[in-house]
Amino acid sequence: MDWGQLWEIVSAPDNVPIVAMLFLVPFFTWYGFRQALANDRLIERLSKDPELAKTHHRKVEPYREGWSQKLYVWPHLLRVEFLAAIIVTVILMIWSITLNAPLEEPANPNLTMNPAKAPWYFLGLQEMLVYFDPWIAGVVMPTFILLGLIIIPYVDTNPLGNGYYTFRQRKFAILTFLFGFFVLWLSMVFIGTFIRGPGWMWFWPGQTWDHHRLVFEVNRDLNEIFGIVNQPWVGLFGAAAVGLYFVVFGWLTHKLFVWNDFNRKIFQQMTLVQYLTLQTFLLVMWALPVKIILRLVFRIKYVMVTPWFNI
Amino acid sequence: MSNLVQRLLSWWRTPKLDERPVPKEDPIAKSSLATVTAIFSLLLILSLVWALYEEVWGLRPWISYQREFVESYREVLIDLKPRRGEEVQAIQALPGYQELRQAVEEAEREIAPELAEIETEEGLVRRQLAAISKTFTTERSRLQAAIYLLETASDAQKEGLEKELETLREGPYLLEIPDGDGNTETDEYTYEQMEEEFNSLKARQGELQGNKVELLREPTRRRREMDAYMNARLTSLTETQVDGLISGLDNFRIEIKQIHNPELGLVDRCESCHVGTQEPVLLTAEAMGGGSLFISHPNPRLLQIHDPESFGCTPCHNGNGVATVGTIEAHGRYKHWLWPLYPTENSEAGCLQCHEADRYLEVSPTLDAGKQIYYEGCMGCHAREGFDPEPQQLRETQRALIDLLTSKNETQLQIERTIGTADRAQTNQEAERLYAEADALTMSIAGIDTEFAHLQAREAGLMMAFKRVGPNLKEVRVKLKKEWIPEWIQNPHDFRPTTKMPRFRLEEDQVRAISAFIWQSGIEAELPRQPSGDPVQGKTLFETRGCMACHSMGEGEEATGGTFAANLSRVGEKANYDYLVRWIHNPKERTLPYCPIHEREITPEDYASQGLPFEFDLEHNQCPLGDHLLQVQQPTVMPRLRLDQEEARDIASYLMTQAHEDAEYAPAPYLDDPDLREEGRSLVQNFGCASCHEISGFENEGKLGTDLTKEGSKPIERLDFGLLTSQAKHDDWYNLKGFFERKLANPEIFDEGKLKEPLERLKMPNFDLSPEEITQLTTFLLGSVDSKFPETAFFQPSDQRKEIQKGWWLVRKYNCVGCHQFTPGQEATVLEELPLYQDPDWREQLPPSLVGEGARVDPNWLARFLKNPALEENNLNRNGVRSYLQARMPTFDLSDEEIQQLVRFFAALSKQSIPYTAPVLQPLSSRELTLARELFTHTAAPCLRCHATGDPVTDRDATAPNFLLIPERLKPDWTERWIVHPEIIRPGTNMPSGLFRQEGQRWVFALADVPSLRNYDQDHAKLMVRYMFQYSAAEQRRLTGRR
């Protein structure tokens, strides 16, 4: 275990946000879930007791004598936000005093750094380049991520859960988001920071980043496993494989849409356009972990090989 | 502990949100955030204070440093002041000073009355001027403004303005002017009168001031003399100057002290912390609070040469000159700064980037030693700019010669064709035109021939100048004992710990194969059998002829002599006597000449096949097989001492006795095994033996190692630390210095732990360098940088200093410094330090110091002398100039270019111009001749008692050079200076001083009153010089009465 190396990575000024993220994101997820689950239990009680529901005005606590019926933004919200602003300012001040910008030596065109890493917020994108061609990882995927985030309100036909924390009423939305954020974004940032060393090789945390390390790693295309080596069969085979993926995973996704009565209700409120849009984005999203698994576990480089592009 | 566990458990068991008891009051509306807000507001303020602290002090440590400096410095100065006062007083008490002071006072007294008069009048004029000037200048401004208005006014307005102007001119102005008696006179003036008065007063004032300066000239000059007297005797500052420094400290400004030189792109703030570097008082660590922060620069002379205001600090020392936030940052000792401060022991590395062209610098002994080691070994495998240029130049010249030959042949063919065509031409006209063409081509061949001859001369010179690091291995069969070779290759340091030959990483069988190849590729020849000589006589010769300026004798601690060449303690174990005799007699002699065109040795058969006698030397260096030159000399720097065969035999016999008695070598029959030859050849190639040695078939081998010209700028990533990378990072030697030092101490270190085939392993051999040598080489490598400064910043003089730079390379190449001194600051020569020469009688036997040689001798003569120090063609076994010296000035077989370079070097060292034309001296009249003879042979100064005459009988006692050489050897003006002041020119010389004393403007013989000279009113020293410059053998016979 190379503790010195690990400490060097953890303590690099560049990586402070990532280390902070490792603690902050789980904490706030837990914090949100605590509230959401409490609300869910309250909702259950209210739905069992209509009397209570009648007197209930606020969403967290049952109504009590002497409690205000309404709380105003000013002062009740703003004072908390003001306090938060102070705390964040203090943190930023101390951070900026103690850690200087990590300036390096003048660039030398004859000598590229190894590993050459993007800023921490782009490390996820850089890691995606391992699994897809640049035009997919660098253009298509980011576009889908942005568009996907934009279309959420337009495909969301679930009327519940506005303005309060709840898990039970928005299971599908929350789980999908957490999957995208945790598995597909944060874990990729984590891999890019802590796992990828010289030559963008896979080093377990604590393993020494040896510039001379040699590993045996052979990647194949899917068609080679099946002994198909000639075009156009390679391309056609790839198209078929991709098609198969869309069919199988489309069917599985549809199964999620109609998982239980609640989901089915939501599903029924969808228009065809909403349904197809959501399917498309979800299928593209699932494709990433599928490709990661194919690559890391089965050492498959491309599923579809054509003379013009590869997937 | 259990308490903590309980608390943790209770926290874990906190009831869920909705199961907690409901508070009576609304927690959001009623709870107060005041405490939290107060705490964090306080923290915010604290962090602001922290930021301010960082801004003012934390990131500006130099502020407190400078405060500290002012305090300690003031103490030092206050402490120093009385001591300085004492010294000043002591000097003031000296009679010389008193005298000067009296002169000053006298001069001042003399002018006092006149001065007082002038000063009185000056005072009056000043007062009068003061009375006028205010009114006058005011009115002048008013008038000028009025004139301007008038000039620019319209015609209608002009009239009124003219009148106004007139009024202004008229005045009247009332002035109260004081006179000399203390009264004031009040008068009315017009403007014009006032102006006149003002101007005349001004003129008078100027006149008076001029008079005063004139009057004070003499006293001022005297005072200056007095001050100069004081300054010349002061060892440091005066009391007043110290006072000035102290009061300067009162106004010391705490600020960033910055040196900015836009030309170099230089911004250095080093002096913001190192405030005392340039102070005129020597500041020691002890006086300045113990640390080295405030000490003076350890070598103030360097700062005089390199004015810090333009050179700054970082060009020499490296480091981050801009940074001021802390030691690590400013010294650049962090990962991303590419030019970290040189460590103290390597600080001379900084000299190199600008002094790349210098071989020797007085102030950088470490760097100099590093260059020497590089020159003696590293250079074989590692190319580096400036080192070893000859092979490259030689190859280029040879290539050019081949091209010339080809074009000559082609031209000749073309001539034949043209003539042939002309012969068959249809018309006369056509034939004539073609013949003319052929003639033109023939002419061009003449041009080619000239160029060919020119280039060949250059080639011959380069062949002489070209030396190899190690000996010629073609001679092994005649030179060495067979059994010794494998033992030596296995580990040369076992046999001779100080040898430059390194230890390679060889397996037993590799040693055998290499030995076999070397042995079998050697030239087979029978050397003439030499009878044995007298070892006792040989030992004396070895110790007195000068061998020990380069060679040492004795093992381990007992070794005495120079380190430039091999230690000869055990040479008897390895060498063949016959070869040794030849080598000592003439090291340049080869068994067979080598032809670079045929790429083989030329044998007697080759000569015979062309019907030529088997004869090769510098005059007979044409290849019998073609129109090109042979390498006729051994590529060694070892010079010829011009010993005769007998002496060579004596020395060789002595050397053969230098062996361990119990030395035994296992028989090595495998050296003749032809099966090992091929393997040996590939190993020799692999390990680069031919980088240093001349080996058959490998004469043109290139350099095996990395080019080290810019090694000090190599990115650390380009250096292969192998499996030690992470260890190096962890142990903090992942830097250039760490790499160089470890690699030099153990060249195979970065192979550690690697699985490699034997021939793929790192090839660099182990030189078993001492830690000191490693530091020297590391300094040299660290300084070999790709400079970021413009070329103009480098020391590349175009005047004579360039010749000095170039000359040092030669002086070091041939180790002239083993015997001679060239500059006053140079360290003692090797011979000077030998035990033998500690004896006062033997001190006279030391080779001459060459300080001022350029001023002394005629450069043309010097060139002749360097070519053949015997100065005679046939009688070689002697010193040409100082025949009385046991030590011999060797014949170095320098190329003409090298000789010229040395001559220019000497001239430049003494600031003499080249070419030199000997001045024509006025011939002696017959009277002068008689006088001169009398003086020359006068019993009070018998010149010929010490000076050699060329006569073997008298010269036995001679301790000074031969007069016969003077006319062509010396320069008259130097000779005159020498006979007048020998002690000044060469302290410690045997030549007596005070031969002449000054009488008015001329020098007069001082040792005796010579009656006949009383009427001679000219300079006696000049007379002697003129006499000596017409001195001849005939004259000498006449004086000595011998033939």
Structural class of chain B: mainly alpha
Largest sheet, spatial ordering of strands of chain B: 8-7-9
Computed CA radius of gyration of chain A, to the nearest angstrom: 25 Å
Mean pLDDT across all amino acids of chain A: 87
Report the count of strand segments of chain B.
Answer: 11
Helix-strand sequence of chain A? HHHHHHHHHHH
Helix content of chain A: 55-70%
Determine the structural class of chain A based on helices, strands and strand pairing. Answer: mainly alpha
Question: What is the strand and helix layout of this fold?
Answer:
The complex is a heterodimer of chains A (311) and B (1043).
Chain A: H1 3-11, H2 16-48, H3 50-55, H4 73-98, H5 123-128, H6 134-155, H7 171-195, H8 222-225, H9 233-257, H10 261-268, H11 272-296
Chain B: H1 2-12, H2 27-30, H3 34-58, H4 61-92, H5 95-152, H6 155-170, E1 173-178, E2 184-189, H7 191-233, H8 239-250, E3 259-261, E4 266-268, H9 300-305, H10 308-311, H11 314-317, H12 327-330, H13 349-352, H14 365-376, H15 390-423, H16 428-465, H17 476-479, H18 484-490, H19 492-495, H20 508-521, H21 535-544, E5 552-553, E6 560-561, H22 577-585, E7 589-595, E8 600-601, H23 604-609, E9 631-633, H24 645-656, H25 675-687, H26 725-730, H27 736-745, H28 771-783, H29 800-813, H30 830-833, H31 840-843, H32 853-856, H33 859-867, H34 896-909, H35 926-936, H36 943-946, H37 966-969, H38 972-980, H39 982-985, E10 996-999, E11 1002-1005, H40 1020-1028, H41 1033-1040
Antiparallel strand pairs in B: 1-2, 3-4, 5-6, 7-8, 7-9, 10-11
Describe the structure.
The complex is a heterodimer of chains A (311) and B (1043). Chain A is mainly alpha-helical. Chain A has helices spanning 3-11, 16-48, 50-55, 73-98, 123-128, 134-155, 171-195, 222-225, 233-257, 261-268, 272-296. Chain A has eleven helices and no strands. Chain B is mainly α. Chain B has eight domains: 31-88 and 256-341, no CATH class; 95-236, no CATH class; 343-377 and 706-762 and 767-789, no CATH class; 390-465, Methane Monooxygenase Hydroxylase, Chain G, domain 1, CATH 1.20.58; 473-588 and 634-691, Orthogonal Bundle (Cytochrome Bc1 Complex, Chain D, domain 2), CATH 1.10.760; 592-628, no CATH class; 797-909, Cytochrome Bc1 Complex, Chain D, domain 2, CATH 1.10.760; 926-1040, Cytochrome Bc1 Complex, Chain D, domain 2. Chain B contains 41 helices and eleven strands. Chain B has a three-stranded antiparallel beta sheet. Chain B has a two-stranded antiparallel ribbon with strand order 1-2. Chain B has a two-stranded antiparallel sheet with strand order 3-4. In chain B, 30% of the residues are buried. Classes of the chains: A mainly alpha (311), B mainly alpha (1043). Chain A binds chain B through residues 2, 4-5, 34-35, 37-38, 41-42, 45, 60-62, 64, 66-68, 71, 76, 79-80, 82-83, 86-87, 89-90, 93-94, 97, 103-106, 108, 110-111, 114, 208, 210-212, and chain B through 16-18, 22, 24-26, 28-29, 33, 36-37, 40-41, 43-44, 47-48, 50-51, 54, 336-338, 715, 717-718, 722-723, 725-726, 729-730.
